[in-house]
Queue: 4 jobs
Job 1
Amino acid sequence: MTITGKTQLLGVLGDPVAHSLSPVMHNAALAEMGMDYVYVPFTVKPLELARAIAGLAAIGVQGLNVTIPHKQAVMPLLAVVTPEAKAVGAVNTLWRTEQGWAGTNTDVTGFIAPLRPRQNWATATALILGNGGAARAVVAGCGQLGFRAIQVVGRQAQKLAAFQASWAHAPIQPSLTVHGWEALPALLPQADLIVNTTPLGMSTTAGQTPLPAEYLALAPATALVYDLIYPPRPTRLLTLASETGLATLDGLEMLVQQGAAALAMWLQQPVPVDTMRQALVDWLDRPGQ
Ligand code: NAP
């Protein structure tokens, strides 16, 4: 691409940010669309966050993604936070307004996107493993899809109680219960959707799985196992789920769709989702990955 005097800036703020795949998919889409924009990574230390977003506004950056560890910390620095982001308690996408930066959370849209076309989830039960940041987007997404029951499994009773309490006044009111890991054998037979939001199975723990095969065998034959992790593709969890005969979904589509939602918001026009997905697949399939 050619950077011109009119090239506009988009980017992602995080620390670390070197592992982010967002520049790959956004720049592929911008090139395909012939837009005079470039999307760049910005490493920003927590103590510099306020100065960074003020400075990026001052130099006319058009839109930002926000990733670990800034997704919560950025919220008080924004002029507007959407109800969806407030419910999740985290922001991952910023755009400019006359009052200052506005923020929303497109992880919810990304999580829902591959689920919505599959079936009507209104009578379904979701079983969510883990109760960290991604689990919040998953709960909000399941709430939007109208799940009858949302069961969250975690390993720390105090954190689980705080997680449940945090939804009491949320604009999205899911029917949420929280459980320790020991409840899994009783919960799995009712689970229509099983979502892994723990990091178990990521490259540093590749080969590990939050659920062993004998637990997966307890799930209904029609259950869908959704692992937010990418790569590896597939994770150990998804390999075991496939071997058990269960349908599977990995986290790549969530990543693509949260990015596509952000880019469409910044550019105010439809974006080439297939190009974004293919750019990521090609990047992840490079030799040595
Ligand atoms: P996080 O805030 O650190 O939460 C991780 C959760 O997993 C916590 O509840 C943690 O429990 C639990 N956990 C960690 N290690 C565990 C273990 N050994 N056994 C049982 N539970 C364990 O992380 P996050 O931001 O939610 O991200 C979680 C995963 O989702 C990551 O793999 C990330 O890559 C993925 N993700 C994917 C997408 C996507 O677009 N596909 C988007 C966001 C996140 P404690 O609270 O007890 O520590």
Note: The chain has eleven helices and twelve strands.
Job 2
Amino acid sequence: MTSPVTLAVDDGIAEITIDLPPVNAINQAIRTGLLECFRKAIADDSVQAIVLLAAGRTYMAGADINEFDTGVGEPAYYDVFRVIENSDKIVVTALHGTALGGGLETALACHYRCADANARMGLPELSLGIIPGAGGSQRLPRLIGAKAAVETVFGIVPIKAEKALELGLIDKIVDGDLRRGAISWTKELVQQGASPRRTGEMDVDVTGYDDDFLAEMRTLAGKRMRGQEAPERLLEAVAVATKLPLEEGLVEEKRIGDAAVASAESEALRHVFFAEREVTKVPGIGKSASRIEVETVGILGSGTMGTGIGIVFGNAGYTVRIIDPSRESLDKCKAAIEKTQASQVGRGRMDQATAADMLSRMSYVTSYDALADVDLAIEAVFEDMNLKKEIFAKLDEICKPGAILASNSSTLNIDDMAACTARPASVVGLHFFSPANIMKLLEIVRAGKTSKEVLATAVDIGKRIRKVAVVVGIGGTFGFVGNRMMVKGYIREADQMLLEGASVQEVDKAIYDFGLPMGPWTMNDMGGVDIMCSVLESTGARAANPEPFYNVTLALGEAGLLGQKTGQGFYRYEKGDRTPIYDPSIENIIAGEAERLNVGRKSLTADEIQQRCIFGLINEGARILEEGLVYRASDIDVIWIYGYGFPRFRGGPMFYADQIGLDKVYETVRGYHETLGNYWQPAPLLEQFAKEGRKFADWAPE
Ligand code: 3H9
């Protein structure tokens, strides 16, 4: 097998090149190749200096994440980097693309670093629940100081070359051709008699690295990585760097790093890394599948969803027409879009010219005729099936042949809408989550007759508008994947537990402590209790169940306690303030419902609350798999992470179930079935997989 690392010597310079597409992820072959090439170059008397380069679109993007599952084979990173760092000939490396994790750690072991102006670099290991474990936690503080090292690693997002130069992470930005520039700089260094400058021999600058700084970093980690252990492990490793020489520090780094790799948190985060990339692979619609050209998009409805969707398409470069019979509503929508763009400019997230260009492509019209030549029409009107059917019939009449007709429905059956047109193959669901311009998730709903061409186009659109787009099927029930699980598994159980005696606050706190950004009742107040009630009624979610569910939610809806918009829902709100204030009087309404329904009351533990909500999700997720509504279990995980804030460090509901063990999940669900009622019937797939000792991750559609 040819090595991904090659060595060429020319004019006294040894050029070592790594070439392993797509991202030069460091695996055993790269480590072996590096070791061999460096040893050869160091032993070669004709070589005066060594330049390390990477071919392709990027410098090394990190360690090969797959190796964490299989074990990192010989040679170890430490052994390779020791040879590089201890070389008596100077070692220069040149960075481009994204130099991340083990890639940047390789650069840290070199003596001099240059980069092209567009390069970005960082140690994003915390996002995988690990710490820089190839010397990074010990070398980075030596090179740029302990404070900047912690900030860089906690920041996760890679820094730009300019900032890296400022920090001393790199020594030079090369203009023009990077390879040529790096070689000529190396020759200059040789001429100047530069000697090896070993990061491992540097002292750690601890300026500003004090208790206040550490407290600030812990607060930051508590916000951005709540519930995760890796940030604290990183702080422990950096503290070691400030006290021990490199070799002793590496021993400690290995101890801390190995524990991190073995943690449940890291296993889950690594799963999410690959799951996010898997969703983009849709069976049957490879690169060769034909696509429809989409440049002009019509959006029906100028309410909150229409406005958000408009921003998304406008920012992605499409020409957008927002259509609404109400001029007043259109004016509000236009003002909201202009305000959003102005705020983006004000915060330095967008330049003025880009904002102006976007706004120039937006138009706001009252006549449906504006839909005649759009390539894609998306309806974003109120969630009412009769209204949606009318709209689809109209779209079919007005839109040009070949245009894609999409619904932004969050729960309703797209097949029923498609049936109102003479072109069901052109109909697809594009379910954006609110606020559409903020939430990353897009469920692309494949209806019974949606053509491959339309589906492939929708997937491409998802990429262009920078959403995490997951293709899902419709199935026999409402709510596609995310909302079906939320209503049938999660809200149902949260509502039942209120009747049984848990307080609103206890339910929300238990779910927040599990890791979601907010509990179900804070969420309901935010979205509007009336919206949830209408979903429950219009989709038949309530009627479909023989047992009386969602009673508390519906009681609040009936009483006009609709959440933030009315100043009172599950919580109370001061005028102009969205902070939920717990109002114990809400418990009287709940107790009244419990009495009416004859539900005995008791206290529930946080564990039970978490388990019933999350296992409710898992059981419904198993039915969704059984019905073949997703391509893989991990698609459900991605939906729940991006649509509902399921904690990444738990991997998503289906991975979480696998991690606990399906036998244990099944036993618990069976127990609930016995004690709580028939509605907890274990999903057949859960039962089957539990008995066969399999995981949801093993599931594949037939
Ligand atoms: C680390 O370094 C630990 C160390 O401290 C050492 C410890 C001992 N491994 O994202 P893309 C695959 S931890 C394996 O679509 P882009 C990816 O799955 C690592 N595979 O491209 C995909 O495969 P497929 C720290 C990897 O242009 C393909 O490459 N580093 C890895 O949108 C293309 O990826 C990181 O966390 C990997 N490290 O984005 C960086 N990286 O085609 C992780 C990528 O089969 N990587 N793949 O689906 C990234 O952030 C992005 O991939 C990057 C490119 C920005 C580089």
Note: Residues 372 and 525 are 39 Å apart (CA to CA).
Job 3
Amino acid sequence: MTKAYKNLIGGVWKDSVSGKVRESINPADTSDVVGTVPDSTSTDVDEAVSAARAAYKSWRLVPAPKRGEILYRAAELLIKNKDELGRLATREMGKILPEGLGDVQEAIDMAYFMAGEGRRLEGQTVPSELVGKDCKSVREPIGVFALITPWNFPTAIPSWKLLPAIVSGNCVVFKPSSDTPVCATRLVEILMEAGVPEGVINMVHGSGSIVGAYLAGHHDIEGISFTGSSAVGEELVKSCAGLDKEISCEMGGKNPIIVMDDARLDLAIEGALWGAFGTTGQRCTAASRIIVHEKVYDRFIEGLAKAASKLKVGDGLKDGTEMGPLIHKIQMQKVLEYIEIGKKQGARLITGGRQLTEGDYAKGFFIEPTVFADVTPDMRIAREEIFGPVVSVIKAKDLTDAINIANDSDYGLSAAIFSQDVNNCATAERDLETGIVYINAPTIGAEIQLPFGGIKKTGTGHKEAGGRGGALDMFLHWKVIYRDFSGKLQKAQIEG
Ligand code: UN1
């Protein structure tokens, strides 16, 4: 029997008023239905928003350390259930099991970190110009947020939004990706078990075009935090313009790795392989351009093609699998189209390039790890986000040329350099135009204690995750308080 998951509204697990459901399927084996979820409507969203609004009245007054303690318990529960949740992430999203477990680990890290934030959320106290007066700033919750998340990190990315939102004292309506709704539901179940009060987290399943769009434009929410495709993000920004809401969108990437002639080539190849094919290339941080110094170019492409062709592709739940399927047929077809575009525009396909269809592969959405060499920066495969196991290798003359190629992109999420020369590394660190820079490591693998996000077309609004400038800036505003205890009316700037 397929398990039927539900929406969560005001603490009650319930079906949509539509009575309809959607299936969530395993991308490695489409005969495996992971669960069904409600196919919700705007009426369900209205109900969820009013439940959040009602809960906000008391939740905002719960002391932040107490809110943090709930997250601490959630972290412990996530650890207890890590194996089940990791397997579920793999089954529902397709990433290989070590990565499914990593997805859950990122949520655990975030839960501990944000639990601690409950005891910080610090403001400032500064001296006043006047005697008998003090001045301070405090951080306050904002209200009700819409959280809209993608399928590629089905547990981690929801945790990046849910946990800072609620530790700050906000209430939320959460619309997870319709491709990974079961992972999202399990995360919410765990948060409720940890003690989140009814109505603080509400979850409405359904399509982005109906539920997501209606929720984002809802008159009774204060803000939207979205992670997903540039197309949807840009649409959201446009449709919310003038609505006076906080909006943060984390979108695409076209992340470069620079490989210098003084790099440890073995490390650079291993890094490129992990950056390009980890999560089947379906990370916004995935390395999709490898910019290689001409002196080591031939050796690099030979090494990368050899390593990529050896990757074991298959069901991520099977031991030894190194790369899983694409999330669904549409994404697989999009990636296959980009492979054709690469060939047509004159890039040299040096390994991969085909859909895998034999035997068990026929059950899912599998494409070979694909490497294009002799890509030029103007080709579409060097400019557009593919979100699949396809990597473009571009030749560069020197460091300046490599950095110019790297920066010649609409996106600016993550970039990397492999070099043993401290001056090259420091120059790249200074001049790469991205939100995240890695030295001798690939473009993936950000940790949650620092902000996550990019510049240019990658991101608008606030960043995600922890640290100064991270997600808390989205979910809290500053209030400044002046208290006069002099017993007389004092006039700032006039007397004193
Ligand atoms: C994403 O690709 O959408 O830095 C998130 C990383 C992961 C998160 C990626 N920690 O690759």
Note: The longest strand covers residues 29-38.
Job 4
Amino acid sequence: MHRETARTMVAPGKGILAMDESNGTCNRRFAALGIDQTEEQRRRYRQLLVTTPGLGEHVAGAILYDETIRQTTDDGTPMPRALEDAGVLPGIKVDTGAKELAGHPGEQVTEGLDGLRERLDEYRTLGARFAKWRAVISIGDDRPSRGCVEANAHALARYAALCQEAGITPIVEPEVLMEGDHGLRTCAAVTRRVLDRVFAELRAQRVDLAGIVLKPNMVLPGCDSDERPSPAEIARATVETLGEVVPPNVPGIAFLSGGQSDLDATVRLDAMNRIFPNAPWALTFSFGRALQRTALQAWGGDPTKVEDAQRRLRHRLRVNAAAARGAYDPRMDEAA
Ligand code: 5MM
């Protein structure tokens, strides 16, 4: 079952909408735009996303947060049902967040394994077909440490095994952050090292690699680096790094956007699919910010702006779905 779901999640020309911001993150994004930080506003915003006309055309799955999976649309339809009705698989973020890693100043380990078996049972009852767990790795002096990489990789593997036991497909998300002044090659080396460890742990925990979706960072220079590689250079560095460590039976790789601009994320995904049309895995998107940014700004908490916001989300979905086929044309954005 988890294999079939994994294949559906990365079906050709489709991606995943990451809309699983925890309340803290969602409230921060709302606060920056002067939107009330209430449960009702978060519900209205998530309703806007899941009821976007034609959502299922470009999106195979949407990742929800615990609060959202329990909410309904105005007419009382549970959010997961609204997604199913749109032809979109409902997913759920099941980690409980990245916390400071003891003995490793400046590093984090993602928590949420305690009671996960029982929570997965409940989430499946609520309609979840897949799950997500995000590990966070930072680059800096002596970072990432061996302890940080091993602890996060082990947790990701334990999570993935529990998901498959529950018939839920795991998204495995080890994110190497963009913060820092490191170059492209450093990011490539750290990403390779992290993924190598993640796959070693997945194998040790007997996770079926054909029944997962990998959600990594693209290989990029740090935000404070002077390097300005082209989309083609980034595409090559990313796919070649992944090619060294990601087994070919993993059905799909769905990238996070990690703070890139909307356009950068799209153009770089497109370059990967143009340069590597025969990659062993599907190469698609599981963006959060790079899909939602313009929609959230347009909405701004104003009920009269819902349609405009949905139009903007639909546009970013359309261009990224094109990028997932290597068929993005910059004129698509110029015309918007
Ligand atoms: C959508 O945000 C997700 C949850 O974040 P928090 O736990 O920090 O609230 C996040 O995991 C997201 O799915 C990934 O980072 C991908 O999103 P971006 O914006 O990097 O594409």
Note: The radius of gyration is 19 Å.
